[in-house]
Structure formats: structure tokens, C-alpha cells
Write a structure and sequence with these properties.
mainly alpha, two-stranded antiparallel ribbon, about 5% strand
């Protein structure tokens, strides 16, 4: 492969695609981007409004529940009249004492239906949140929240000499969690005016009157400040605020690395199949360049574009993640690690699109192939990374490395090799098979897919050693398929997952 010829083909590829966009198209794209830039802050500030007003709560304006109901957009306050109760035009009804028989004031009634139970759970959560907000407004926080917990999550296998290890006094999963509490000292005034002596009154659940009726609700896992990568790894709050860590934001941001690849491979596959229509690529085939020069030259602009997009995405995200640090070297190292983890995914996307474009017989078939490849490869990269903080099986996906980088964790060379090496090998094999049919006999004829597959394998056969070579070429596909099977089946019960896994591996 000659570098000068490869770069010239890459330059032709860029100029050819750039010439397809006229001024009108560029103007339309600019207008669309402008609208997106203007509307995005407005939509983000408004938030998700799909569930606004879906629950009707019959509550009077002098009830202690009226304040919490008016603060939740999913709840709509209606007048608690006898007609409202008898007609059933409510999901939750707050009794007034004189409308419903045998229902004291502020007692709750709800419809015996899934929606009524969901409305009651939503009201309970709203009351708890409302009481906590009122407690937070008190000048003496120690009186409002007598127990304050500070947690700092560390790796489970941290040694005793690691920073923060052993402060909890155990060696289980909770080891290394730093726990501090603060109580009211002498001379401080408690909530309600009492001094530091005595019990200090009741807890924060009764701050809004008889808020105890909201007990029993189950708090949802925090996906806001409690697990945000845009704040420090330290968590503070009351015991009720504690929830297991979940890399929600890290997963969403890691998906931002994958999403642009789905659009890039569409353009790449279209460019490859255009060379096969009306014999447009015949001039390159008869030119004094090798098939490797042509394939690398046509692929290089799209690969560079993917890496550039991933780099910009990494820099933009890591600038606002204090888990990584603020030093330029730390940010640069995190960017390099994140982009390095994404590179094998980009190569696999391009290799799969190249093979699909070489085997497809029309643009309609190519569209089906590229969409199917996008769904499968995105699932392979994204689904295992969900278990980054749960199970080591997540390491089969390079996106798990990106999640670790966003969480401020280091990535060992062995972890990188385990996550990326199968994808590197698979991408190389796919490019080799695609290059086997990059010839006039297969490019410009409507041959069946099975014959093209045989031609792709035949291009790798050159003697007795080719048998071992073909077996070696299948190893990356088998390895990736087995890893995917393990990732999909490990969550099942052991009695079921082991036999099914053995059958799946035997079939593969």
C-alpha cells in the first residue's frame, strides 16, 4: 500500500461528497441547526411534560395536602364535592370530614384501579419531597435533619491502605464508605424553639402537618445530583436520600459517541455502492493502484470524521466532569482514553457497512442492511455497559471504558485489550472479506449473495495453510458471539443460564 496514492483517493472521496451539497442544501441545513440551537434551551428548561395533569386529586384549599398537590405538575387539584366523589371523577380524594361518610378530615380515598394506585404513590412521593423542601428552609439544618450522611463510593476491592478504605469498619461492599453524622450541640436551637436537650421532636416527615400519611412509598433511584458526573463523587444528605449508584448520565453521554456513527456509515455505504452502479468504480480498478489502496483511501475520510466527532464530544463532556479533574494533562489523558475506546467501535461500524455495501444488490437492500447493522452493533456496545457498576461482564463493551473514564476511574491496559481486541480483529476480518469481492466479477454483476460469500472466502485460500487461516478468521466472530451470549444470559437464574449458555456456545 502506497501512502501517496491512498491519500489522493481519500482527497477525491472528500471532494466528491462535498460537491453533492449545493448552496440551497447548505442553507437548509444551517436553518435547521439554528432552529435546534434556539429551541433546545427552551425545551430543556420546560422539561418533560408528557405526564402533566394525568392524576386528579380532590382536595380543598384549606387541606394540608393542597400545598404538595399544587407543586406537582402531574397532579390536578379538583374541588372535593359530593358530586365529584359519587361520579368518580378523581383518582385520589382527600376527605373534608363532611362529604364522605365515615371519612375523617384529611383521610385519603383512592380508586381501586392501577391508575388510582399510581396516583396515590405519586401523592406520597410528592408529600415527602414537599416536607423535605420545607425542612431545608429551616435556618438550623441540624435540627431539621438530625442525621446527615456523607458517602464516598470507592472500588469494592480497595485495599486497607487505600484512601478512605476501612473507615466503615468492615471489608464488605460498604468498606471504604465515609460516614459522618452531626447532631445539635449545646446552645443551638432546635426546630420548634427547643434547646439541644431532649429528643428534639419528631422527624422531618411531619413537617407539613400530618405528613406521616406519606410513609411507605419507595424512592426511585436518583438520576439527578445524586448520581451526576457533573458533581464530585461525594454524596451528602439524609438517610432517605441514599440510593444505589447507577451510571445513568454516563451511559447517556457514552451513547453520544455512538449515535453519530450510525449516520456516518450511511454515507460511507452509499459511497461504496455508488461505485458499483453503472460501472463507476471500474476506472479505479484498472488504475495502477491496489485494492488495499482503494479501500483504505475511501474509508479514511469517514474514519477520520468519526474520530474527530468522538474527540470533540469527549472534550465537550470532560470539560464539565469534576471526577476527571481540572488539570489539562488529566483531561487530555481522559480524552485520549475515551477516544481510544471508541476507535474499535468505529472500525467495526465501517467494516460492517463496507461488507454490506459490497454484498447488497440495490440501495433498498443496502438500507435494510445498514439499519440492521446499526441496531445490532449499537446494542452490542450499549447494553453490556449498563452493568458497568454491577458485573465484570460489562467489560466486553468498549463503552464500559468510556463510562469508567466519565466517572473518573482509570483504565488498565488489560481491560482495554479485553474490551477492544475482539472488535479490532473482527473489523480486520470483515475488511479482508470485503476486499475479496472488490473486483470486477463481483462488483458489477448481480450475483447471489451465497456466491459472493464463497468468492470472499476463496480470495483467502492460497494453499494448504489456508485451511488454518480460514479457521483463524472465524475466531473473532465466534469470540464476539460467545461474549454477547454471556452478556445476554448472565442475568438469568444459574439453574437456567448455565444449560442455555452451554447450548448457545455449542451452537455457535
Amino acid at each position: 500500500m502506497k501512502r501517496r496514492k491512498t491519500l489522493r483517493i481519500a482527497r477525491w472521496e472528500v471532494s466528491k461528497n462535498a460537491g453533492q451539497f449545493d448552496r440551497r442544501t447548505l442553507a437548509i441545513v444551517a436553518v435547521v441547526l439554528l432552529f435546534v440551537a434556539v429551541l433546545t434551551p427552551m425545551v430543556a428548561s420546560r422539561g418533560n411534560t408528557v405526564d402533566d395533569g394525568i392524576y386528579r386529586v380532590g382536595v380543598s384549599d384549606d387541606s394540608q395536602y393542597y400545598g404538595p398537590v399544587t407543586t406537582d405538575l402531574t397532579l390536578v387539584a379538583v374541588e372535593p364535592t359530593a358530586e365529584t366523589y359519587e361520579s368518580g371523577e378523581f383518582d385520589v380524594f382527600v376527605c373534608t370530614g363532611d362529604v364522605v361518610p365515615n371519612c375523617p378530615r384529611d383521610a385519603l380515598r383512592y380508586k381501586d384501579s392501577p391508575k388510582g394506585k399510581a396516583a396515590l404513590a405519586e401523592l406520597r412521593t410528592t408529600v415527602e419531597r414537599y416536607n423535605d423542601e420545607r425542612m431545608a428552609e429551616e435556618p438550623d439544618r441540624a435540627a431539621a435533619f438530625p442525621v446527615n450522611v456523607t458517602l464516598r463510593y470507592v472500588q469494592q476491592n480497595a485495599t486497607a491502605g487505600a484512601p478512605g478504605a476501612g473507615k466503615s469498619g468492615g471489608n464488605g461492599p460498604g468498606a471504604g464508605n465515609e460516614i459522618t453524622t452531626r447532631t445539635t450541640t449545646a446552645g443551638e436551637t432546635r426546630l420548634g424553639g427547643s434547646d439541644g436537650a431532649g429528643t428534639g421532636g419528631v422527624g422531618g416527615r411531619d413537617a407539613g402537618g400530618r405528613g406521616g400519611s406519606a410513609n411507605g412509598s419507595v424512592a426511585a433511584p436518583s438520576v439527578g445530583a445524586g448520581s451526576s458526573i457533573f458533581v464530585d463523587n461525594e454524596r451528602q444528605g439524609t438517610p432517605s436520600d441514599i440510593s444505589p449508584p447507577f451510571p445513568f448520565e454516563s451511559l447517556v453521554l457514552a451513547f453520544a459517541f455512538i449515535l453519530p456513527m450510525n449516520f456516518v456509515i450511511q454515507a460511507y455505504a452509499s459511497s461504496v455502492i455508488e461505485e458499483r452502479i453503472n460501472d463507476r468504480g471500474e476506472l479505479l480498478l484498472v488504475s495502477p493502484v491496489s485494492r488495499g489502496d482503494i479501500i483504505v483511501g475511501k474509508t479514511l475520510p469517514y474514519f477520520v470524521g468519526m474520530v474527530a466527532i468522538a474527540t470533540v464530544t469527549a472534550v465537550g463532556i470532560l470539560q464539565f466532569t469534576p471526577n476527571v479533574g481540572t488539570e489539562p494533562l488529566a483531561v487530555a489523558g481522559a480524552v485520549v482514553t475515551a477516544v481510544s475506546a471508541v476507535i474499535p467501535i468505529a472500525l467495526l461500524f465501517l467494516a460492517s457497512a463496507f461488507v454490506g455495501a459490497m454484498f447488497a444488490r440495490s440501495f433498498k437492500e443496502l438500507t435494510f442492511v445498514t439499519v440492521s447493522l446499526s441496531v445490532f452493533l449499537t446494542s452490542y456496545a450499549f447494553v453490556p455497559s449498563v452493568f458497568t457498576d454491577v458485573h465484570p461482564i460489562a467489560s466486553i463493551s468498549p463503552l464500559s471504558l468510556v463510562v469508567r473514564v466519565l466517572q473518573g476511574e482509570s483504565v488498565a491496559l488489560g481491560q482495554y485489550a479485553f474490551s477492544t481486541l475482539p472488535l479490532f480483529l473482527t473489523a480486520g476480518v470483515l475488511f479482508a472479506l470485503g476486499a475479496g469481492v472488490y473486483r470486477e466479477e463481483d462488483m458489477f454483476t448481480q450475483r447471489p449473495v451465497t456466491l459472493k460469500a464463497l468468492d470472499a472466502l476463496d480470495s483467502q485460500l492460497h494453499g494448504m495453510r489456508s485451511v488454518a487461516k480460514c479457521s483463524a478468521l472465524s475466531i473473532p466472530f465466534v469470540f464476539v458471539a460467545e461474549l454477547l451470549a454471556v452478556a445476554l444470559l448472565f442475568a438469568l437464574p444459574v439453574d437456567l443460564s448455565i444449560p442455555v449458555l452451554l447450548l448457545a456456545i455449542a451452537f455457535i
